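Title: Comparing notes on inverse folding

I've been comparing how different people in this forum approach sequence design from structure. To keep things fair, I'm posting one structure and asking everyone to reply with a full sequence. Here's the target:
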């Protein structure tokens, strides 16, 4: 494959994908049970009575790199896990597809991005969890309340550029939803259109 074709393929893989979620705000979140990179099992039932954020991840996606390379995602993880919000990062890339990581690779990725203490990486290579939630992009974000209901589903913010320079001026939907929900207030925008690279099922 020549350089031109490689470049074209790479650009096609990273064209922004836009989609609404299957997991619907106001309804019970889909059940799941997945193993993380450390070998621990995480199920929705484990978080009964607690707040939970789900974040779909692909290390090779420029939109993911936008938020991790800038430290934006790690800052969100730290801020809200310190408020007793649980945060899980999910890789639904199939083996052989862009973004796939085995357990040791995922551990190394978590350490490299300083996310290992706040956001365990769940490995979903068969795509069962991703499909249940309707995760279409990386990142794709969901917030689940202590009653097990989805209170937010969609994009991390309102700017679908892959340039990290836009983060400071963007509205962060996840932060706004968490701040409102944790204060006992209604979430103003419970569903938004997610952007990013398509999940590589």
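Reply #1:
Here's my take.
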């Amino acid at each position: 494959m020549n350089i031109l074709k490689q470049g074209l393929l790479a650009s096609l893989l990273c064209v922004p994908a836009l989609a609404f979620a299957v997991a619907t705000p106001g309804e019970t979140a889909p059940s799941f049970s997945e193993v993380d990179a450390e070998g621990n099992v995480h199920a929705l039932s484990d978080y009964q009575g607690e707040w939970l954020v789900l974040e779909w991840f692909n290390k090779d996606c420029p939109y993911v790199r936008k938020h991790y390379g800038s430290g934006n995602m790690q800052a969100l993880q730290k801020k809200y896990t310190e408020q007793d919000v649980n945060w899980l990062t999910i890789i639904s890339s199939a083996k052989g597809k862009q973004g796939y990581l085995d357990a040791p690779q995922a551990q190394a990725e978590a350490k490299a991005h300083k996310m290992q203490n706040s956001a365990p990486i769940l490995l979903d290579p068969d795509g069962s969890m991703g499909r249940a939630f309707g995760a279409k992009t990386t990142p794709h974000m969901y917030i689940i309340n202590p009653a097990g209901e989805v209170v937010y589903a969609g994009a991390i913010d309102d700017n679908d550029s892959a340039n990290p320079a836009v983060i400071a001026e963007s509205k962060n939907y996840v932060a706004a939803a968490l701040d409102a929900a944790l204060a006992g207030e209604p979430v103003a925008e419970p569903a938004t259109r997610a952007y990013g690279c398509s999940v590589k099922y």
